[in-house]
Amino acid sequence: MYVREHAKKETRLMHFVGTTAAVGCLAAGLLLRKRSLLALVPLVGYGPAWVSHFFVEGNRPASFKYPGWSLQADFVMWSKIVQGKMDEEVDNILSTTTYEEVGTGASPG
C-alpha cells in the first residue's frame, strides 16, 4: 500500500527532497556540533513529504500511523529513486491494483 500512497511523481520528488535535506542537516549538525541543525531534521524531512500527501496526493502520511515503518520505507524509496527504479515499481504496483484495494483505502499493518 505504501507505493500506492505515492502514486504521483511529485509526491515522490518531495519525499526525495525532504529525505535528502534531513540527512544533510543530520550530517552537518553532527559534524559541526550544531543543535539547531539537528532540530531541523524532522521539519525538513517530514515537511515536504506531508505537504505532498495533503496537497498533491490527497491522502494522509503513513508516518502518522506507522512512523518507524514509514521512515524505513522512505529510505527504500529514496534509494530506488537514485537507482532510477522507483517509477517502474510504481507503474507495476498500480497496474496490479484490484477493485477491492481501491475501494478500501487500506494501509499496511
From TrEMBL:
It holds the Pfam family Mpo1-like. Keywords: Membrane, Transmembrane, Transmembrane helix. The chain crosses the membrane at residues 12-31, 37-56. InterPro entries: Mpo1-like (IPR009305). Signal peptide: none annotated. The keyword Transmembrane applies. This is Transmembrane protein. It comes from Chondromyces apiculatus DSM 436.
